[in-house]
Design a protein that fits this description.
heterodimer; A: four-stranded antiparallel beta sheet; 11 strands; globular; B: 113 residues; mainly beta; six-stranded mixed beta sheet; four-stranded antiparallel beta sheet; 53% strand
């Protein structure tokens, strides 16, 4: 157990819908990262928050947004879902975010039908 | 932009065979380097890391990796693999002091008993 909690573990929805994925980092970690893992794209960096502020952005679509709340949990919002958004979405946390050692959750598997 | 290349997408070995997985990165500055492993049905976890110092680093379960700065490489090795090493292995790079960790596409290793 990494200490990072992600919910839901599985989610099935339809195209055009909106979903929210939630992540609780390890106790004491200020940084939260989101990654998308799909079969053909590998592990793609989406976004990084540190203590409530966005620190780095990767290949995140405009239909996707994220935030980190004062209690340090984070949510990834995916809207206008398309079939191609089906993937495993991982959250990871770290103490500071500047040394790169990440602790991953078990992921949220999103299936868009 | 930073990128990480893993040369082999799928590797099949028999138990006791030696393993070497290639990883090259594109960033020219100071970097932190990592190998993560994802066992079937589990979350990604850190296998080993290099921040500075001895370029030969040892990780868990008998794995080691060598950082060769002139070749921008960080190859993972294990002298004798076991069936339990069946997993997906990811090389990752974080720009020193940076806020995003970039992953390679992963190498799926299958070890035949």
């Amino acid at each position: 157990d990494s200490g990072v909690t992600q919910t839901p573990k599985h989610l099935i929805t339809a195209t055009g819908q909106r979903v929210t994925l939630r992540c609780s980092p390890r106790s004491g970690d200020l940084s939260v990262y989101w990654y998308q893992q799909s079969l053909d794209q590998g592990l793609q960096f989406l976004i990084h928050y540190y203590n409530g502020e966005e620190r780095a952005k990767g290949n995140i679509l405009e239909r996707f947004s994220a935030q980190q709340f004062p209690d340090l949990h984070s949510e990834l919002n995916l809207s206008s879902l398309e079939l191609g958004d089906s993937a495993l979405y991982f959250c990871a946390s770290s103490v500071s975010g500047a040394d790169g050692e990440l602790f991953f959750g078990e992921g949220s598997r999103l299936t868009v039908l | 932009a930073q990128s990480v290349s893993q040369h082999n997408h799928h590797v099949i070995l028999s138990e006791a065979a030696s393993l070497e997985l290639g990883c090259n990165y594109s960033y020219g500055g100071t970097v932190n380097l990592f190998w993560y492993v994802q066992y079937p049905g589990q979350h990604l976890q850190l296998l080993l890391k290099y921040f500075s110092g001895d370029p030969l680093v040892k990780g868990i379960k008998g794995f080691e990796a060598e950082f060769i700065k002139s070749k921008f490489s960080f190859n993972l090795r294990k002298p004798s693999v076991q069936w339990s090493d069946t997993a997906e292995y990811f090389c990752a790079v974080n720009e020193d002091g940076g806020f995003k960790t970039i992953f390679g596409a992963g190498t799926r290793l299958f070890v035949k008993a």
